[in-house]
Design brief:
The protein is mostly helical and 127 residues long. The chain is built from six helices and two strands, in the order ββαααααα.
Length: 127
Amino acid sequence: PILVDFDIVGSGCALYFQTRVNQVGQGIFSGLVESEVLRLQRELVSNLELTNAVRILKGRYLFDTETYSGLARFLGEQDSVGDYRSAENYFELLDSIKATDIRDLAQRLFEPARQATAFLPRPAIEK
């Protein structure tokens, strides 16, 4: 399985992938990521992809905010990308996202001159 997460960093974006490189191969994996980024920049995501992404984000919010530490982390993330008070209408903000917003954001965040790929080895597990 491939686990994916991201962070907004300044005016850019950092993507994090966790996978077993020996299963996929670094070159193949890099090519897959690059082709998906290009697709996001050039094409509109489907209604199904957008609906699923919004559901995942809503679910993550509900799960994360069940604890005080999760709520604090979420509010901190909101504050780092704008204003923590945006959490008050988070679901409405998510529901207002359009496929064109995704494409426009991908074009802004994933500038080829600012892209870098790094593969970090998994630590060896001692027996």
